[in-house]
Amino acid sequence: MLELNLHDLPDITTSRLLLREQSLSDAPALFGLRTNTEVMRYIDRPRPREVSDSEAVIKSINENFHRGMNMIWAITLKENPEQMIGNLGYWRTDLANHRAEIGYMLHPDYWRQGILSEALTAVIDFGFNTMGLHSMCANINPANDASRQLLLKHGFIKEAYFREDYYFDGKFLDSEIYGLLNMEMGTLLHLS
């Protein structure tokens, strides 16, 4: 079984970004993301009713990190590391199988600037080269073409399409699953 021996969620830096642990001071920004209609259009999860709901989510995320269940970073710009503009990371880990599910969200003010792609590259690298993952997956709403294109750009391959496998808000919804193997990532790096 894969073991994560990290006492704290490590910061990850890229040319423009600092990915860091989420703190309770990020709760208003997370609340803003999770109540934004554009951000949540294809994220089929309950919306928070107040900022304290987002505080509870952050506490749960950080507690679950210490249990080895997830690793989720706040996305910030290096010049303003206090302001969370999105988050991404491994929402579920399957340590027995060296696999994790990746997910992300970004404020619309920062869409189409390559920010999520830059952050995703760094987190994929961390997953394979630091965590020791063998594979990762992403579960998207099939209508979310932007997310699909982002995953394909990063080498993910469509693994499955599940019809009406998820019940949310009174409806059965479909899911698309994309996957990436560690050995495929190495091939992608050599091709670029």
TrEMBL record:
Pfam families, per the entry: Acetyltransf_3
PROSITE patterns to which the protein is assigned, alphabetical: GNAT
Protein name as it appears in the record: GNAT family N-acetyltransferase
GO molecular function, one term: acyltransferase activity, transferring groups other than amino-acyl groups
InterPro entries for the chain: Acyl_CoA_acyltransferase, GNAT_dom, N-acetyltransferase
Keywords from the named record: Transferase
Sequence ranges assigned to domain N-acetyltransferase in this UniProt record: 17-174
UniProt key word Cell inner membrane: no
